[in-house]
Design a protein that fits this description.
Oligomer: single chain
Largest sheet: 9 strands, mixed
Shape: globular
Number of helices: 16
Keywords: Iron, Iron-sulfur, Metal-binding, S-adenosyl-L-methionine
Mean pLDDT: 92
Protein name: Radical SAM protein
Domain Radical SAM core: 33-275
Strand content: 5-15%
Radius of gyration: 21 Å
Pfam family, one: Radical_SAM
InterPro entries: Aldolase_TIM (IPR013785), Radical_SAM_PqqE_MftC-like (IPR050377), rSAM (IPR007197), rSAM_sf (IPR058240)
Number of domains: 1
CATH superfamily: Aldolase class I
CATH class: Alpha Beta
Number of strands: 13
Low-confidence stretches: none
CATH topology: TIM Barrel
Bound molecules: iron/sulfur cluster
Helix content: 25-40%
């Protein structure tokens, strides 16, 4: 039997361990107050960039050509139908907190994107609506126009200028880093936009080292909120195994994020369940949220694709994951409750494949189990070496029980190390002590 090497955890200094414990504890408490329904709704898979790791395999439109309205998926009436069905579901649960985050593709390519944001705000309230953009198309005037209807604007910057421009191949042939950074600096001039702005980065093996310097550049512009989204092995990232950060990379990244965030006074997050794994394992707090609508991780979202189909995770909307697609909210007679609760529906899938007894092969730690899509993709792609076109629905369902590869317990071959191993408990001791100290502050 192979043993798991925890030496990377032992490299953390006492100061780093204290910072990490305080950060994770604060995030844990914030998330505890935020249960409810969260949805990422992709309203187009057309984009003006062609990133080699696009997780939704967005299609870059051809420069100089008109984008046919139907290529975005559904028209405004279709989107309105989806939003009204979500509203009807919430009406029967008046106390359920809700957040809707619009994504794509590049949603500002839709001529009706502002109307969609306004309608969502009318139905759910501005505090419940957010959007994500690559920041190369909308002007600051556009964003000021929709600011009264929105509470969150995520803009992606994937590294320093050379990396960002190499990664984000633009259709328009502009320097997209300069374009997006110019928009960000214009937004910072307006407190109402500045406070809603979050800059997001997807880490790869190639940009990990430059993230602290990117944070310093962003801070110089006045950015206060910065998030790193986990690299998900989906879409065009499916076959980019060589770029996927490993568990050691993520631990080191989180330490550096927290350290740099503290140095600069920035609010930082590392998304997609990595923080919840560390909170469970290193700090000993329960992050398994079996009552969450969606993955059993507080604030995990459901996904909706441009054709109104609902997915148990926003990261499983494209091939091969679309083999798990539910019916569409655009289907007559199909409401949101049906899609969630019907036999074989979204919640059925979660209850069958993501519950504590099955996720991560039934690991006994009181843990969310990290991210099911990242776990399954690692299992199917890196362990079994399957191409996306060869993956069946049964492969996907079987792989949902795999261990999250970002977890310190993860072992090659997709097994987990015993969480009560004496060596591990020794490694965890300083983290648990720091957590007790942080809890008393
Ligand atoms: S193996 Fe899975 S459930 Fe267990 S601690 Fe790791 S991520 Fe959490």
């Amino acid at each position: 039997m192979t043993t798991t090497d925890y030496s990377y955890l032992q490299k953390a200094t006492p100061r780093q361990i204290d910072r990490l414990a305080s950060h994770l504890l604060r995030r844990y408490r914030e998330k505890e107050q935020k249960s409810g329904l969260s949805i990422v709704y992709d309203i187009t898979y057309i984009c003006n960039q062609a990133c080699p790791g696009c997780c939704v395999s967005a299609i870059a439109y051809k420069k100089g050509t008109e984008i046919a309205p139907e290529s975005h998926g559904h028209d405004f009436q279709g989107i309105s139908k989806v939003l009204h069905k979500i509203r009807a579901y919430l009406d029967s649960r008046p106390d359920l907190p809700f957040f809707l985050d619009f994504g794509g593709g590049e949603l500002t390519l839709r001529p009706d994107w502002k109307d969609i944001v306004r309608l969502a705000s009318e139905l759910f309230g501005r505090e419940s609506v957010g959007m994500n953009t690559n920041g190369t198309r909308a002007s600051v005037e556009d964003l000021l126009e929709i600011e009264p209807y929105i509470s969150y604007i995520g803009i992606s910057i994937d590294g320093l200028e050379e990396y960002h421009n190499r990664w984000r191949k633009t259709v328009e042939g502009v320097n997209s880093y300069q374009k997006t950074m110019t928009l960000i600096s214009q937004m910072i001039e307006h407190p109402s936009l500045r406070d809603k702005l979050d800059i997001t980065t997807v880490p790869t093996k190639d940009n990990l080292a430059q993230i602290p310097d990117l944070m310093r550049e962003l801070h110089a512009l006045g950015i206060r909120h910065y998030s790193v989204h986990r690299a998900m092995q989906v879409g065009r990232f499916w076959e980019r195994d060589e770029l996927l950060p490993g568990k050691e990379d993520y631990f080191d990244l989180l330490l550096r994020l927290i350290e740099t965030g503290e140095e600069l006074g920035m609010n930082v997050h590392l998304h997609h369940s990595i923080e919840s794994i560390y909170t469970a394992l290193l700090l000993g707090h329960n992050t398994y949220a079996g009552d969450n609508i969606g993955n059993p991780d507080r604030k995990a979202s459901l996904g909706i694709d441009p054709w109104g189909r609902v997915f148990f995770d926003p990261w499983c909307t494209v091939a091969p994951w679309d083999k798990l697609a539910s019916s569409s909210l655009l289907d007559d007679g199909m409401d949101f409750e049906d899609i969630l609760r019907s036999h074989g529906g979204v919640q059925d899938l979660i209850d069958s494949y993501c519950r504590i007894e099955t996720r991560c092969q039934g690991c006994p730690v009181a843990c969310s189990g990290g991210n099911r899509i990242a776990s399954a993709a690692q299992h199917i792609r890196s362990t079994r070496g399957l191409k996306a076109s060869a993956v069946t629905r049964d492969d996907l369902l079987g792989a949902l029980a795999a261990v999250d590869p970002a977890c310190p317990l993860y072992r090659d071959g997709d097994t987990f190390a015993p969480p009560d191993d004496a060596d591990l408990l020794d490694v965890l001791r300083p983290f648990r002590e720091a957590a007790r100290g942080a809890a008393q502050k």
